[in-house]
Every structure is written in C-alpha cells, then in structure tokens.
Write a structure and sequence with these properties.
This protein is mainly alpha-helical and 122 residues long. It folds into two domains: 78 residues, no CATH class; 43 residues, no CATH class. The chain contains six helices and no strands. Helix 2 runs antiparallel to helix 3.
C-alpha cells in the first residue's frame, strides 16, 4: 500500500492536472475521476471473489503484475513535462509530437557539478 500511495497513486492526479487544455479541463477531469472511482469499485467488489477462487498469494501476484505493467506504461507512453510550459506541452500534443525535455535539459548542469561549483565558491 505504501508503494502505491508513495509512487504511482499521486501520479494520476498530477497527470489529470496537466494533460487537458484549459477549455475542457474541468469536464475532462470530472469524467476521469468518475472512471477512477468506477475502477476502484471494480477492484473493491472483485477482490473477494478472486481471492476465494484463486487464493490470496495468486491474487496479489496478479496485482503485482498489473503494477509492473503500469510502470512499463508510464515509462514508455507518459511524456516528461518537467521544465515544459503548459502552452508548449499543449502545442506538442496538438502537432503529434511527444513532449520531451530531454534535449533542453541536457544543457543543464548536473547536480554533482552544481555542488562542486557551490563548494568552490565558498
């Protein structure tokens, strides 16, 4: 439970706040939240029958497999938006480009090089 609430769980809410244009954001987030609650209800109502049919260990292995698939999906499909303005991100989505800041962030100094500069200046 800690792993879910500390990693992938909050990511959903962050993405919902970023992926929709302002014109439709409130409606689109409402539809997504409804879908999330329906999925939560499906898991809550489906869990006991699956445990009864398969046992507790296989059920949790199924959930672990779904977690791994979610992780693969996030790393392969969800665009990186760090350092990208909402307007730039929206423009890249409209034109079918994957929004990525890897190119612009490669010019930023790494944390270790910034720490060396800070130590050298004091």
């Amino acid at each position: 439970m800690f792993a879910m609430q500390g990693t992938i769980g909050p990511l959903v809410w962050l993405l919902l706040a970023e992926i929709f244009p302002l014109k439709i954001r409130s409606f689109a987030v409402g539809v997504c939240v409804f879908g999330l609650w329906m999925a939560n209800a499906g898991v809550a109502f489906g869990f006991p029958p699956v445990v009864q049919a398969l046992g507790i260990a296989p059920t949790f292995f199924i959930f672990a497999g779904l977690g791994v698939l979610a992780r693969v999906f996030i790393h392969s499909v969800v665009p990186e938006t760090r350092g990208v303005t909402l307007e730039k991100f929206e423009d890249s989505i409209k034109h079918g480009r994957k929004a990525s800041v890897r190119a612009c962030c490669s010019t930023r100094p790494s944390l270790s090089s910034r720490l060396k500069v800070d130590k050298g200046s004091s």
